[in-house]
Amino acid sequence: MFIRSSRFVVGCALALVLAGCGGVGGWKSDDTAAVTLTTMGFGTADEIAKTRFDAANAAIAPSRAQASEGSFDAQAFLSAVASGSPPDLVYMERRLLGTYAAKKAIMPLGDCVEREKIDMSQFREAAVAEATLNGQLYGMPDFYNNRVLILSDAAFAEVNLDPAALDTGDRQALSTAAARLTKMSGGKLQRIGFDPKMPEFLPLWARANGASLVSQDGKTAQLNDPKVIEVVEYTVGLINEQGGWSNFKSFRDSFDFFGAKNQFASNQLGAFPMEDFYLNVLAANSPKAKVTVAPFRGVDGQPVDWITGNAWAIPAKSPHAEQACEWIKTMTDSQTWIAAAKARAEVRQKENKPFLGVFTGNKKADEVIFRDHVKPDPAVQTVLKAQESGFSEPAMAAGEEFKAAWQNAVNRVLEGKQTPAQAMAEAQQQAQAALDKANSGS
Amino acid sequence: MRRETWAAYSFLSPWLIGFAVFMAGPMVASLVLSFTDYDVLTSTDFVGGENYRQLLADPRVRTSIANTLIYTALHVPVTMIVALALAMLLARVGRRSAGFFRTIFYLPTITPKVAVGVLFLLLFNGQVGLVNAGLGKIGIEGPNWTVDGPWIKPGLVLIGAWSLGSTVIIYLAALQNVPRDLYEAAEMDGASAWARFRAVTVPMISGALFFTLIINTIASLQTFDEVYTAFYGSANQQTYGNDAALFYVVYLFQQAFQFLHMGYASALAWLLFLIIVVITVVQVRLSRRFVYYENE
């Protein structure tokens, strides 16, 4: 009797579980069932995130997604995948997509795009390219981080230089300007003249010098390209002329980077290349510190803009892939971005602070946002102009190892342990070995 | 089996189950994984001793082992000497004050290691840090502790000495157990303070010294939290990572969770286990000549 009733209970439970898990294994979930999508890597702390999240939830009602309120954590994602309970949606840097795509941890979005009739022409090409591995799209582009030059008007005025005239393509002029802007007292740095942001911005410097760190298909490292070595030598030299790496970095580490006493407000920095989000940080925290924004130029005199950003991906074993796809469509849609920008503009207006816009991976959204919600501003115009020359690093099956290889190499040069040629040769070997191994299984 | 034995096992069972599930099981699993190419996401391939061959040829393994051993060689003696000095001071103050100071010395121990890592960056910044400001007052120009390779480990040792409360408490308990009559006898024989310390205190607390030597050595070889927070905790810090701060467990963590080389990371873990076992065995062997146990 006991055994028979136990079987009945187990049978009922199994039936219920199967009914609830109708979507396991791809794009065949039950559209009518209300489910809660689990996410990883996205928080709803500000009005942009919240407006978009709410809009995406409304699109899949009565189902909804639940925000995880934390940035992407590889350890947590791996644990979730290994234990067979991956999230339905994951939000991560686009440069990470290649690694997870090569290991089939996230699914290609071709079917999703087709089924939901997502208009891919609305997205910026460089963002889509960064999320594409071996011809397959693995992430829907989200933000679009541009890199431009931010120059301190006060520092340039002090040494009688015009910030708008600084040309990163003219190496001699840049070195001279950096030397004039650098301020030292008693052997200690008081102001960095020009921070090339190395090793962080090596891809930008390399492209400006006519080189790429990796081939277009993301399979061949090009770290020992003479043009890359040359640019490492130049930028490290620039730092050495401003007190040397040790003093330079210690001084830079003391900046109140996100505060009211940031390096521009405190006259501690002449200029540096930086992501566009920092313009909003400066506008919000130190509106009185005047800066000029200029494009980063290559040796050919043309603007160069290295872009990065995040993307939404669907784990391969997402229990509710279909709803997740529908949700992503709305989350990255131009209308959702426009609504979010409007919400941010209203908040800024209430705070009596300027709104410098949101730079998205969605061209159509940007057109409306910067036409209808952002007051004309030369800094914003510069970033918008820079977007036209945006490039991204291709997706790679061993993106993290590739990055670690060149970053460690530049750090060794900065610390004076190796010459640029030695360091980049070693990095080339490590990076290529990692790419070969990762691609051998894909 | 006797009824009492079963009772004893039943009382021990929570620990035994916990040990089997959370310690022995994962250890065996990691030993097996160390012979595989495993990345959590794709199938596991048996690769024999390839991971071990690879780690012997990996220059970053050598760098991280050297960093960790240098740090341990600096950290353990500094911790033991400073802790013993503080414990001897505490042993001299009155009972009431001793309680207060014990609490004060122990408080930093309960500070999260992550906070210690952040504090390190603030206090030891070469340009604006309090440490160099203090050194400047006495005419010493301090180094860039957080950037200059040769100064990173000494800086970490100094910040590590800040949380030596546990060692102080162990030494204090040991010092309070040294029979007073031994000191009185030594004094009557005309022994100086140094002679009393060398001939009475050190032998009588040698058990505690040995215990803290082992514990601190193992903890130093496994140093992770504060170093990772200070030098690798964010994407920005990883970008500017300094090889002088590449400790063994930090490298192991990178291999496992940044590069997804779980099999290789398991091999690294077993190499660390082997290093710890060898060092501990050497310490135990040497201790037979130096450690005094009252009941032997």
Task: Give your account of this protein's structure.
The complex is a heterodimer of chains A (442) and B (296). Chain A is of the alpha/beta class. Chain A has two domains: 14-144 and 309-391, Periplasmic binding protein-like II (D-Maltodextrin-Binding Protein, domain 2, 3-Layer(aba) Sandwich), CATH 3.40.190.10; 148-306, D-Maltodextrin-Binding Protein, domain 2. Helices cover 47% and strands 13% of the residues of chain A. Chain A is built from 18 helices and 15 strands. A five-stranded mixed beta sheet of chain A has the order 2-1-3-14-6. Chain A has a five-stranded mixed beta sheet with strand order 8-9-10-7-11. Chain A is globular. In chain A, 51% of the residues are buried. The model of chain A is unreliable at 1-30 (pLDDT under 50). Chain B is mainly α and 296 residues long. Chain B has 15 helices and two strands. Chain B has helices at residues 3-33, 50-57, 59-92, 95-106, 113-123, 130-137, 149-161, 165-176, 180-188, 193-204, 206-221, 225-231, 235-239, 248-258, 262-290, and strands spanning 36-37, 45-46. Chain B has a two-stranded antiparallel sheet. In chain B, helix 11 runs antiparallel to helix 15. The interface between A and B is medium-sized, with 34 and 26 residues.
Keywords:
heterodimer; A: 442 residues; alpha/beta; D-Maltodextrin-Binding Protein, domain 2; 2 domains; 5-stranded mixed β-sheet; 18 helices; 15 strands; globular; disordered N terminus; B: 296 residues; mainly alpha; two-stranded antiparallel sheet; 1% strand
Oligomer: heterodimer
Number of helices of chain A: 18
At CATH level 2, the architecture of the largest domain in chain A is 3-Layer(aba) Sandwich
Helical percent range of chain A? 40-55%
Strand order of the largest sheet of chain B: 1-2
- The domain count of chain A comes to 2
- Biggest interface: chains and residue counts? A-B, 34 and 26 residues
Q: Provide the succession of SSEs of chain B.
A: HEEHHHHHHHHHHHHHH
Average pLDDT of chain A works out at: 90
Q: What is the H level of CATH, i.e. the homologous superfamily of the largest domain in chain A? A: Periplasmic binding protein-like II
Which residues of chain B form runs of ≥5 with pLDDT under 50?
Answer: none
Beginning-to-end CA distance, first to last residue of chain A: 54 Å
As a percent range, the share of helical residues of chain B equals: over 70%
